[in-house]
Amino acid sequence: MNLKSLLLLQAVAMAPAMSFAANYYVTPEGAGARNGSSWDDAFGVAEFRTQAENNANGDVYYFDGGLYNLSEKTVVFKTATGATLIGNADGERTVFSGDKNGNNNPDNGDANRLIRFQANTVNGNSANAIVIENIDFTGVYTQASNSSDNMAALAVDNSGDVLVKGCRFYSNWAQGEYGGPAAFVSRSTIKFLNCIFYDNTANYRGGAIRIFCDNVNKGFVTLENCVIKNNKNYHNLGGAIFMSHGNSLNIVNSTITGNSAVSDGGAIYFNGYDSAHHREVRIVNSTIANNTTTSEDDAQIVSTNNAHLNIVNSIITSDAAVAAIKFKGDAPGADFAFVSGGYNYVGSVIEPADNEMEWAESDTHGEECTYGSIFGENVINNNNVIAPATFVLGADGEQVTEAVASWGLPAGLDLTVDQLGNERLAGMTPGAYAVDKNNVTTGSIDVITDGQDTALVKIADGVYAVTGAEGAVTVYNLSGISVLTATTDCIDLSTSASGLYFVKAGNKVFKVIR
What we know:
The protein is mostly beta strands. The chain is built from 4 helices and 46 strands. A hairpin with a 5-residue loop joins strand 39 and strand 40 (455-460).
């Protein structure tokens, strides 16, 4: 054999598995020769399952709209391979269901898992990339008996590059002790983009999502432009999300609302930092609102006293009975870290004794920051956003980007837009849905009150009296620049230019149009 032939054989041997990848077409019933080569000869469910077991790295599967009953057996993709699954984006949704008995209710006998991947890659390694797009996951009934069981509608393990886009997870039930009926993320780097999780239930540990990892270098989860609503945990540890171990959970431009648990977090529960599991939680441009518990002294977000929590330009609030955030423990842990990037609207916080949380000057926080004080009677709408009814000044895209520069967020996030893709400009509200002064329901009023003791009263053209505020009162213009600081109970804007101003008195921000 000559040198040229030898080199050619070596090149073929070293070629990545992806070079043998193929495109396959799948319909609920299959068609023609059922070899997956075209829509006319599409795989059915059985053939799809068989091919997944023999998946070549990089295989692409296209699914027609319709109901795919996967309850007979989990679709398990060949270990150490990646794939792309693309559901129908035009017309009827592609629905993966585990509803074996066909009663449209997850219960005993239904599948305990629909799809499972294990790419065997580390964070950021795209050699075995996984993409799942425009697919619904429903009808799963799990009874996980230990924390390592990969049981959920979507189970992803040890995979370093996963994108789940435009998917919906609903009506899944984790009856056992380990929760997360919609998605179980183990040792993986995964981004959920434009996904919706709703009407899932669990007995413990996350009404929708469970995050687990045994290695500090793995377990990176990001929710961007997502909605998690109306999930229920019948006991404790996260009405929507439970993170026991992992590196980080990043919640960006997302709305989490209407979830519930008996205790330990109506929305989210996460364990605190340690050297083996950093468990960093970062909340950016998001709304976490009206998630409930039935226990006293509980909160929407609960962690231990070693928590690492960063928030910026977000709204975290519920009614007066449920705090925004709670850190469990009698004293702050040695590794406790809280960072505010500013422009947050946050309800009451239950802190360990002798702990000092440092808030930014632009934050509005405290027990008076209830759901009603900012949203009025508004609830989540058909666009899956909650529209503010009271104006509170938020950050623009540039300010948010600057605030999070050192937080270690994953690349590729668009922090300059809101959940609907609207540009975040100066003079808009914080939270997942950013609106300007003309899109809230308050309008220009002469007497403004926060429902407690602080009020702003117009006494002349451009002159206002502030009652019930402690400390200095600061006035900002539309660009967020301080234009006046008063130590008395009177602010005079009569000589200022006409326009919109924001008056910050204590923990309350009022809007003034003169």
